[in-house]
Amino acid sequence: MLSKIVRTVTNGFMPIIIIFGLYIIAHGHLTPGGGFQGGAVVVSGVVMLLVAFNSQELKKSLRERVLSIMESSGALIFIGLAFAGIGTVFAYNLLVGSPIFGHIPPTGPNPGDIWTGGVIPLMNFAVGLKVIAGLSAVVLALALFSSGEEVEE
Amino acid sequence: MDSLITHSPALIVALPLVAAFAIPLISRAGYRARSTFSLVIFGLVTFLVAVLAVDVHSVGIRVYTFGATAAELALPGGYMVPVRIMFQVDGMSIFMGIIITTVTLAALIYSLHFLKGQTGQVRFYSLMMLLYTGMMGLAFTGDMFNLFVFLEIASIAGAGLAAYRTNMADALEGGFKYIVISAVSALMVLFAIGILYSQYNVLSIAALANYMQYTTLDMIALGLLGGAFVMKLAGVPLHMWAPDTYTVAPAGTTPMILAASYTSMYVLYRITFTLYGVHIDSTAIGWIVIVVGVLSMFIGVMMAVHQTDIKRMMAYHAISQGGYMLLGVGVGLAVLANPVALASYGRDAINGGVFHIINHVFYKALLFMTAEAIFFRIGTRDTNKMGGLARNMKWTAAFYIIGALAISGIPPLNGFASKLLIYETVLQFNPVLAVIAMFVSLVTLASFAKVFYSAFTGPEMPAYREVREVPKSMIIGMAILAACVIFFGIFPGLIVDNIVAPATEALINQAPYINAVMGAVP
Amino acid sequence: MTEHIPLDFPFLAAALLMGISFYIIIFKKNLIKLIMGVAMLAAGVNLFLVALGYRAGGGAPIYTGIPKETMVLPVPQALTLTSIVINVAVLALMLTMVIRIYRHTGSLDSEKSRKLKG
Questions:
Q1: Which parts of chain C sit beneath pLDDT 50?
Q2: Is the Cβ–Cβ distance between C35 and C91 less than 8 Å?
């Protein structure tokens, strides 16, 4: 565990990093970014927490059961959204034209309308959830391994 | 029912994916819930594969476009090239689909009892479903980059399964070699895909085959793709990972990793016959395939003879039998440009090579399962320490005899039918190759007979007096494969006419594959 | 500035990266160096893919607030992104296996930590 200054500053920075990551996930269909990129930014915040605090301390906050449920539900939401269009074809974008995320984007350079894209922003959220849970579990498991403890399951 | 057939290519790949991600959630309800769920989903998938097989053999190529307004709509109005990701199921794809599904069904039933008392069982079933998804995606895909993604899915799941027994150091080593080889070969595939995209601006296999002009860059891409897939299918001289990985994989997963290697062989054939097709110099490429095949046959069986570890011996035999398949199809490829030779023996050579794939996967999976059954009961794989097991493990010994006779090419089992096809056709092409093939077959029989005498017959060892037969689920898993081996041996003509001949036709003739997507050439 | 760098430069860099990484994978014995070689090979292939799509004077292939008319090709960027994600998973898997191999055999040398021979 590092000194008190580092720990306090890390605690202060963490919400900013999480909000920046969520911004990148949410605007994935307009600006560069999307599910994986935003999730990786949030996990870099988790790595910062790992460096500042002990991995044993962090294991009490990021419980393995919560991460596992988050990961599975992210993947299932993604496939569920793909199955939702099975009436036409698998992975059909059925929300185009409907009030949720259904606006048609204008052609040419424009300031960007967040309610466009159909199913894609929702899939971005599902992928972001899965990446956050999955990569946090990987990083936590590697840190616990190196400090000598065995992780079950 | 009609819409079920239309959507079946997507469902066959998507349902196991749902199962793989739902199993961690369902396991909280207990061990029985997880087993029942896996079997129900997999039963559904087997039914869909059977339905799709009947449809493809009666109607023709089935195209599935993801995200379009209709499933068969490859070129929406106004487009000249397909822009969406597609699955294209023809005779050869569904042939591999049948093999993969049967082997996975047997492996799933076999592993039900095997894992009692092991930790991490949740991950085991998820990884098995992910490996199945990867292999079926490789078999069905019609898009080059989709091929790369499914190749990597299958590799990662396979490496996770091979290194499953993390308390043993050799399991980790086998898994590590597998993932390094798979990562390097997949990156070479990606490099070749980049080269092809930069020239033709399309990623779909049918469109690339349509626009292909055989420039120097295309030759480089063919070399990279060929090298990458020879690495994945354990052809000599890039076979070093196969004995280690096949030996340490637990339970029923060695048959599945074996099926993944032969799916890579299918992708090699798809690229050579369909993507490049009429443009390549078929004699030269055919001879390269033949040389790799003969080297694999010879070196595989020579290294197998003096092994003491039973699974390692079977792994070297798997390399050697892979050489038979490459030899058969290589002879067909070498005469592809010559219509007289193609009609007289080329088509039968490819028939033999393709028929050998399904025969080999079935009897080799049966043999690996018997070896794992022995390991399950007595805890060692060393043949010097085994003895007299036939007294107590009667079913296992019977399945081993069936598998050993099949691999040596003894009638009336299925190995004889495909090997006879290969011998007859290769003899007309070049007699030396046929003599080498027959010699390899003799040495195969010798090594399996040696292991049978040392492991199963002989005096009963005192340490193994209380060894009982393996649990029923393992016997049922092995019985499924043994029944297929015997059935394919007694009725080879039925199998060749109905399942193998459409596959060979799909390989030799690339025009239906292209026309199914690009529309008839005007 | 960009006019002085010849357009072939990213391809030469990608070829150099791939060549060095093949040398590392074939000839080096340390397991961690092997993993670094695979990571470098992935970096080389990704650089090659992104450099394929570049069109001189082009801008980012998005419409939100961008004034340019010429864009670089977006498809190789999608291919590269997928490849990066897959390689993250592969590298995590390889690192975990190497950590466990080190725990079991006490050595990172691929000759000394071999248990399967023949």
A1: none
A2: yes
Question: In this complex, which of C64, C67, C81 lies closest to A111 when CB atoms are compared?
Answer: C64
Contact partners for chain B, using 3 or more CB pairs closer than 8 A, are A, C
**C63/A110 CB distance under 8 A:** yes
Q: Which residues of C touch A112 (CB under 8 A)?
A: 63-65
**Residue listed under structure tokens 């399951």:** A153
What is the SS3 assignment for B194?
Answer: helix
pTM (predicted TM-score): 0.94
ipTM for the whole predicted complex goes beyond 0.90: yes
Q: What does the alpha-carbon distance between residue C107 and residue A62 come to, in Å, rounded to a whole number?
A: 32
Q: Is residue C67 part of a domain?
A: yes
Residue type, B172: L
* Chain C interface, Cβ < 8 Å to A: 60, 62-67, 81, 85, 88, 92, 95-96, 99
Alpha carbons C25 and C23: distance in angstroms, whole number: 6
Examine residue C61 and state whether it is found in any structural domain, yes or no.
yes
Exposure letters B52-72 (e unless 16+ CB within 10 A, then b): bbebbbeeebbbbbbebeebe
Q: Is C81 within 8 Å of B223 (Cβ atoms)?
A: no
Specify the residue for token string 């919400």. Answer: A15
Q: Which of A136, A142, A146 to mutate to test the interface with C (most CBs of C within 10 A)?
A: A142
Contact C49 B190 (CB under 8 A): yes
Structure-token match 């059935």, residue found: B487
Instruction: With respect to residue C1, please indicate whether it lies within any of the assigned structural domains.
Output: no
Q: Is the dihedral of CA A94, A99, A102, A106 positive or negative?
A: positive
Contacts of B175 in chain C (CB under 8 A): 97
Domain range annotation of chain B: 281-490
Decide if C79 and B172 are in contact by the 8 Å CB cutoff.
Answer: no
Instruction: Measure in Å the smallest separation between the Cα of B519 and chain A Cα atoms.
Output: 20
Q: Which domain holds residue C22?
A: 9-105
Measured on CA atoms in the order C16, B231, B507, B128, is the torsion positive or negative?
Answer: negative
Angle, CA B235 vertex, CA B297 and CA B97 arms, to 5°: 100
**Residues 6 or more apart whose Cβ sits within 8 Å of residue C43:** C17
User: What residues of chain A score a pLDDT lower than 70?
Assistant: 148-153
The total number of structural domains in chain C stands at 1
Mean pLDDT of B34-52: 91
Whether C110 is covered by a domain: the verdict is no
Chain A hits for B70, Cβ within 8 Å: 88-89
